[in-house]
Design brief:
Number of strands: 20
Helix content: 25-40%
Radius of gyration: 24 Å
Shape: globular
Largest sheet: 6 strands, mixed
Order of helices and strands: HHEEEEEHEHEHEEEHHEEEEEHEHEHEEE
Length: 412
Amino acid sequence: MNIQEIMDSLARMRPVFHNEADFQHALAWELRERYECKIRLEQRMEIDPKRRTYLDILLEKEGRRTAIELKYKMRAIDYMIDGEKFSLANQGAQDIGRYDVLKDLQRLEQMVNRNLADEGYLIYLTNDASYYQDPGIEKSTADREFRIHEGRVLTGVLAWSENAGEGTMKGREEAIVLEGSYEMNWRLYSQLDQSSAGSMKSLIVPVQSKAIPWVIKSIDTIPISQFDLRDKLVARLREKGYQVQINREFGHLKVDIEAESGNDRVLIEVRYKTALLQTHFNGAEIHLKKHAAYDISRYDFLSDLAKLEKIVAHHPDTRGFAVLVTNDRNYWEEPIRETSVDEEFKIHQNRMVQGRLNWKNASDGTTLNREEAIELSEQYRIQWHPFLTLGTGKNEQFQMLAVEVIRQGAEL
């Protein structure tokens, strides 16, 4: 589907709208006329059983479902076209506006990743330059992490700053979590007049499936080993229609899982590290031993990430995921001790890893067969997510880390 072409066509007929509902109906009509598809407005989507979520437009054609979220925020302007007057008030509250735009983007990710839609599009129209123009200077504003100006790349956890007021955050306290990476690219939608509010800009952000983390989360039993986790993931991938190969070789490199479905080709490295646990879960006895050697385990996970970078760089049609599942909070909690031999390999929540990573005065026994520094071409934010919760006892919470590799430029 060519959403940009649809928007260009719509702009010729409707350069401005009375409000967001007017925009929604006009776009839905244009989509139906162009694609002869099934359209639903305000379709309820079961993302969270505790909250009702409604999608602006759901398009269905030949079994493919496209989810579309719209935003329409305007500065005050009066405009006449074909005898119809458009008198738009100044909506203001740009901080809340930015949050709401990115909240829609998060919802679209959830819909696509949970197979409620096959693809998604966030479409935003505005004549307010404060949304799309780079402020040029770094200001410590309450909504700094929510900025969506031209060229900004958004990913990971985005939250209000510490100086955000309770009134601003009311009903919007939760941080926004984006699993994908999105670059903000604005285009001229229409030129109403030569005033400062006369330029209408459009932002279109496509959301494609990155379902692998959700496939992993769908595993509802406790793996007894790393091989067991791998095999359970393979079974889930096959249920989702993927063709799977284990221990796929790429030259001198080997990857745990290669999975293909249509045009989607994914490489996955799997690791499973446990803390001591003896309990019952779903009628089964669980006996997990303690895997110590955190320093070596962290090194090995980041080595997986570096290996996937090398492979994906040579295969532009391929995605890579380095996966770690554990019930040992020493991995995801930020350590109290500031310096250690594996200081540069720490993978606790929200840590940024990038560049050349080295041991710090580690013994020969620790670094045996792991002497080389790890080289990461890109920057990655570490984001842990719940995997399974058995109860409230010690080591009964399992967390998952699934880092997607970012492909670098053109094929090497």
